[in-house]
Amino acid sequence: SSHGRGGGVRQSLADATTAEDVGAAAYAEAKRITGRDIPFDYAGVEPQLAREYSEGVLQGLERFPDAPLGAVRVADFPAERGEGQFTWAHTLTPGRTGGTRTGQYEIEFNRKGESSQRANEILSMKQARGQFAYGDVRGLALHEFGHVVHEHAGTSLSARALATTYARKHAPGGTPAKAG
Q1: Which of 76, 144, 72, 58 is nearest to 113 (CA)?
Q2: Distance between CA 11 and CA 54 in Å, rounded?
Q3: Residues 20, 119, 107, 171, Cα dihedral to 10°
Q4: How many CB atoms lie within 10 A of CB 123?
Q5: Contact 127, 149 (CB under 8 A)
Q6: Which residues, at least 6 apart from 79, have a Cβ–Cβ distance to it below 8 Å?
Q7: Three-class secondary structure of residue 37 per DSSP
Q8: Alpha carbon distance 167, 180 (integer Å)
Q9: Mean pLDDT taken over the chain
Q10: pTM of the model
Q11: Which of 54, 70, 63 has the alpha carbon at shortest distance from 22?
Q12: Cα gap 34→38, rounded to integer Å
């Protein structure tokens, strides 16, 4: 594993050339970490964006391998109302309206997302303005993973705390504000 090289993702993800290959590599890493089958489906997304989403989720799984994550995928989100509103991702909760396919928590990233480079620029800007605690795509993914841990465990360890911890480690010299 080579955190910090190749765009800040582990080697198996860096070596994957297509979004589908990234999903397969992330699946294999998650299986190694948890012993469970957790599909990663990134059809239609830029491979680098898929790598960074995967890295964030896998970092969460390394810390909480028992988290009840059933799947990670991209999806077509409904059109946003209002200027400047964009939903980057959400976490589906089992038992709530619509439920989930796996009966566990599932993370969905918006397929209409920006390129990796542009997404990181936007998130960095939002962090600087105090809108988000995370300033990059991996932090966003780890934040979503934090919802899985928080909702399931019902503890004070929240998505905000996980994202804030991540941001403090990775932010260029700033104290992060709140997480969305």
Answers
A1: 76
A2: 12
A3: 120
A4: 21
A5: no
A6: none
A7: coil
A8: 13
A9: 81
A10: 0.79
A11: 54
A12: 9
DSSP state of 2: -
Give per-residue pLDDT as tens, 99-143.
Answer: 677 778 999 999 887 789 988 898 899 889 888 878 899 989 998
Give, in order, the Cα–Cα distances in Å from 110 to each of 15, 139, 179: 24, 15, 18
CB 137 within 8 A of CB 123: yes
Cα–Cα distance for residue pair 173/70, rounded to 1 Å:
35
* Dist. CA 117–CA 156, nearest whole Å: 33
- Taken in order 54, 58, 64, 67, the sign of the CA dihedral is positive
The phi, psi pair for 142, rounded to 5°, reads -65, -35
- Using 50, 70 and 90 to split pLDDT, how confident is the model at 148? confident
DSSP lists the bridge partners of residue 69 as 105
Give the full edge-to-edge strand order of the sheet including 40-41: 40-41, 69-75, 105-110, 89-92
Strands 69-75 and 40-41: parallel
- As a whole number of angstroms, the distance between CA 171 and CA 149 comes to 23
Tokens read off for 165: 């911890």
Three-state secondary-structure class, residue 118:
helix
